[in-house]
Structure formats: C-alpha cells, structure tokens
Write a structure and sequence with these properties.
Blueprint (H helix, E strand, L loop, with lengths): L26 E3 L5 E3 L18 H17 L9 H11 L4 E2 L12 H9 L6 E5 L8 E4 L3 E3 L6 E2 L5 E5 L6 E4 L6 E5 L6 E4 L6 E4 L6 E4 L19 E5 L6 E5 L8 E4 L3 E3 L7 E5 L3 E5 L6 E4 L6 E5 L4 E2 L1
Parallel strand pairs: 4-8, 5-9, 8-10, 9-11, 10-12, 11-13, 12-14, 13-15, 14-18, 15-19, 16-20, 19-21, 20-22
Antiparallel strand pairs: 1-2, 1-3, 5-6, 6-7, 16-17, 17-18
Length: about 325
C-alpha cells in the first residue's frame, strides 16, 4: 500500500525540533526544503515562500499578498474569513510540512520528496465504503472512478487495487456502469435489493446477502428491467452470489448480432461476453440467459438446481 512513514522524535528532555528555540513557533519546510518559521495563527505575517509556485493560482495569491504587504506594511490576511484561510492551507498542502516530519530514512518530507516516494511505491490499495447503518434503501451508481450511493454526494477514487462497498439492510438499488481494472466487491446485504451491471474491467463480486435480490446484466440494464442490450461489456469475471431468499439473475445479449459460442455449467457461463469476460454464479433460484440475433451456439454442460431459462433468436443449443 502506498504510504509515507511518519516519525515523531521524542521530546523528552530536549527541545522540540519542530519549533523555533526563541519564539516556539512551528518550523516548516518550503517547496525547496528550506526551513521557515511561522505560527499558523499569525496570518498577518504569512510567509509567501510557503506557496508552491508551480500553481498559477498560488502564484497570483503570492503576488496579491506581496502587494498588500507593500501597501499596508503587513499582509492583512488576518481579516480573511476562516473558510478562506482554510482554502489557502488546503491549496498549499503538502508544502506546509513541519520540519520534524521525516520518512523512515530520516529524509525531510518536502513536496518533491513526497512525490518521489509515492511514485516509487506500489502495493495493494483498498477503498472501503460502508452504508450499512443507513435507515432507508438508497439508489446509487458506481463508475470506474466514482461512487454515489445516495449519500448527498459522490466519492472519486483512482489507482486502487480493491474497492469494497457494503450497502444497507434495506431495499437498495445500485447500477454498476463501469469498474476499475482492480477488484470490486459489492455487498448488497439485507433487504430486497437490485443490481444492474452494465460493464466491468476487473474482477467484480456482487453478493446478495439476505432478501429477494435481482441482478440485471447487460449494456442497457437498469435496476428494474432488462432492456435489449449486449453482454460484450463484461470484460472480466463477474461473480454473483444470490445469498438467501429468492434471487434472480438475467444476462441480456439480445442485440448482439455476432455469432458466439458459449458454455453453461451449474456455476458458470462463458463465451457470450467480451474478451476475458465470464459469469460465475451461485445460490440463484432463477437464471435467465437471453442470447443474441447472431448464429450463437450454447453448450449446456450442466445446470444449477434452480430454474434456468435460455431464450434464443437463432442460437443452437447442444
């Protein structure tokens, strides 16, 4: 996992290396790693050298502050609203790094050092989103970089290996528009939930949990219906576990005019999806497979103990 190890030296019996010995004000590093003494409550004497000059917004801010300082003798940032000050702090981070923040080797964590450290490390990064305590069912959407679960906003993510989402014990509806290339796990949990899976790029697990759940798979799928579409956008292994209750999964490939050769077993469906795409399923009461208009061939090796329906246009079943 990408991380920066932070080592805080012990202050017992000696001065705090992160504070100036004379003023006791915090010592910071600027963009070049130089020490700067500044009390972050003294905005009238804000040190403009803490600004990252590669940012045009911050360069304009520096010029404005310098002009104010030249005209009034002080920068007068103390009159700014607290929210404005916070925006400035957010914008210049991580330039504002206390001098006693070092990595595992003792190297000061300047902006350039952090960038270098992050670029040279790889690992298993995981995002966990939990909505299990929600008192009502939610309607949400998951895309390759964003998750919105009816929580009043969206969550943007990038460069992760694992994304785990757990929904509430009520009737939730989630549309998976796309996924990242890493692993995505969605736990629908309790309630009569519905999931629409339109496309995936990495291994995706959708677990129904308790309740009567429905799973709609296809390029135009919604959480309530299976409009004519194709299954070609399933580009990795999609694993569905119905859980308890009466669970139904429908694969919609009706508009696919390409002749596919697929295979159906009691726990998998292959051959009708995109490259590297497949369906692994378990604990379903009903599986519906709607084939396309091309000359499809579906070899049924075995079926689940529940009901299996295969609807064909021109397909040959063997």
């Amino acid at each position: 996992m990408r991380s920066c190890s932070i080592r805080q030296p012990s202050n017992s019996g000696r001065p705090d290396p992160g504070r100036d010995a004379t003023t006791s004000n915090p010592i910071w590093r600027d963009i070049n790693g130089n020490k700067v003494v500044w009390n972050d409550t003294d905005w009238n004497n804000f040190p403009t050298q803490l600004l990252d000059y590669s940012d045009s917004y911050l360069l304009n801010l520096k010029n404005t502050i310098d002009a104010l300082k030249s005209f009034f003798g002080i920068a007068t940032l103390g009159t700014f609203e607290a929210s404005v000050k916070q925006q400035i702090l957010n914008r210049i981070a991580p330039s504002l790094i206390p001098v006693n923040r070092v990595d595992a080797t003792g190297k000061a964590l300047t902006t350039s050092a952090i960038t270098e450290h992050a670029a040279s490390t790889t690992g298993n990064d995981k995002l966990v989103v939990k909505d299990t305590g929600d008192s009502i069912g939610q309607t949400g959407q998951l895309t390759v970089v964003r998750s919105g679960l009816g929580m009043g906003g969206t969550l943007t993510y990038d460069q992760l290996e694992n994304v785990n989402i757990s929904l509430s014990d009520h009737a939730d509806a989630l549309t998976i528009v796309s996924t990242h290339s890493g692993q995505t796990t969605v736990n629908l949990d309790g309630g009569d939930d519905s999931a629409a899976i339109r496309s995936i790029s990495g291994a995706t697990f959708v677990n129904g949990g308790n309740g009567n759940d429905t799973f709609h798979i296809g390029s135009l799928a919604t959480t309530s219906s299976d409009p004519d579409g194709v299954a070609d956008n399933i580009g990795a292994t999609l694993s569905i576990d119905g859980g308890t209750g009466t669970d139904v999964a429908t694969v919609e490939d009706t508009q696919d005019s390409t002749g596919d050769t697929g295979e159906l077993t009691n726990n998998s469906l292959t051959g009708i999806f995109g490259a590297n795409g497949s369906l692994s399923y378990s604990t379903l009461e009903t599986l519906n497979v709607n084939l396309g208009t091309g000359a499809d061939t579906l070899n049924i090796e075995s079926t689940q103990s529940g009901q299996t329906n295969v609807n064909t246009a021109q397909a040959r079943i063997s």
